[in-house]
Amino acid sequence: MLTRLFSDPSLQSDVHKYSGWAEDSESEDSKMKDDDLDHERCRLGDDDTDDPELRGSGAHSENLGEDDDDDDLGEDEEDEDDEGAGEGDAEDGRPKKRGPKKRKMTPARAQRSKVRRQKANARERTRMHDLNSALDSLRKVVPCYSKTQKLSKIETLRLAKNYIWALSEILRSGKRPDLVSYVQTLCKGLSQPTTNLVAGCLQLNSRNFLTEPCQESGRYASSSFSVHSYPYPCARLASPHCQSGSNSLPLRTHGYCSAYDSLYGGSGSPEYNSPEYEGPLSPPVCINGNFSLKHQSPPSPEHEKGYHYSMHYSSGLAGSRQTPAHNLVFGSSGMRSGIHNENVLPYHDVHPHHERPPAYDELNAFFHN
DNA sequence: TAGGCCATCTGGTCCT
DNA sequence: AGGACCAGATGGCCTA
């Protein structure tokens, strides 16, 4: 909010005045910005110096505003030592400047400073790009991934934290968690939109909680949230072919898609190579069973063995009735139907092994026991 | 249009 | 001195 407040052009002059006060000098960045012609924030530049050492020199500045009587000091004053500026500060009630005397800003020094600043900017950009790349990598291994509707940075971190926590709890307890608590754990602290997104990715909107007997798979039909009987969704999501393919059920919502898109879209789907998606899928979070990391597609008897405990979505879920009590927090936007996890592409197929979170192997082994 | 999110610039601080 | 890291400031873009 403060940023917003400061963003108000009507307030910016006051903000800069404040900045000048707070930093006991004119705004140095105004000079720095002058050096960067492609940046719009050069608006305050009135000096060709950009050496931070000149901060607090008491040089003239519009930033100091109308109450600053030092404006008439002129540029000559800028090269004076701190004492002069300090006295001026004292008159303004500002603390006397301490520290080494300011060195005169020669053109050579100014040029060096400018280059230094530009290099620092480039490094900072690179650093932030690396950070964003790492965040993208993280997005791909949390239970909800979409290239079209990326989680925000903060939501990615929150979800990752929750995910780690949930997996840790699974390992610690040695039990399959309750579906509801699992989802609640994942979504703890997330915004409502993100919660809905995650729930959608997990195929867990309200209707999923009111299950009808599984009519298609016939395996995990249940009307309860039984840990052992409820068909947990695999959150291996957002396939590269996440399109409303002709052979896919309408699973896509708000730009993300579920594992089912990949299932029904399949490699043979015309949409499979949609340029919209090209990254790896999110890992499975089939907490009701093993993580099926070694599944192959198309399914084979080995696969059946592999996801013996895997989630199976009931087509009946799509049309199932729901009661308000089951609405939970997920809303109803993310409902999908007709989900068969037999068709879920194995995580191993879409995630290079080196990208697989280490926990998955352990968890996979665990659920195979 | 307000608010959220983001990229970028910037100066400060700490460390090598 | 220079690099890494951080946080504040700012403007752009997007969406409800």
What does this structure look like?
With 369 residues, this protein is mainly alpha-helical. The chain is built from 14 helices and no strands. α6 packs across α7 (153-173) and α7 runs antiparallel to α8. The radius of gyration is 29 Å and the shape is elongated. The two termini are 52 Å apart. The protein binds a DNA duplex (16 and 16 nucleotides) through residues 1-4, 6-7, 12, 15, 19, 23, 28-29, 32-33, 36, 39-41, 52, 55, 116-117, 119-121, 123-125, 127-129, 132, 152-154.
Structural shape: elongated
Secondary-structure element order, N to C: HHHHHHHHHHHHHH
- How would you state the average pLDDT, rounded? 48
Helix/strand-derived class? mainly alpha
Helicity range: 40-55%
Rg estimate, integer Å = 29 Å
Count of helical regions: 14
N-end to C-end Cα span: 52 Å
| Largest beta-sheet characterization | none
Uncertain ranges: 1-101, 206-369
Oligomer, anyone? single chain
Number of strands: 0
Determine the strand fraction and express it as a percent band: under 5%
Give the topology.
Layout: H1 2-7, H2 9-22, H3 28-35, H4 74-78, H5 82-92, H6 107-141, H7 153-173, H8 179-187, H9 192-201, H10 206-209, H11 259-265, H12 301-306, H13 347-350, H14 358-368
The structure holds a DNA duplex (16 and 16 nucleotides).
Q: TL;DR of this structure?
A:
The chain has about 375 residues and is mostly helical. The protein has helices at about 1-5, 10-20, 30-35, 75-80, 80-90, 105-140, 155-175, 180-185, 190-200, 205-210, 260-265, 300-305, 345-350, 360-369.
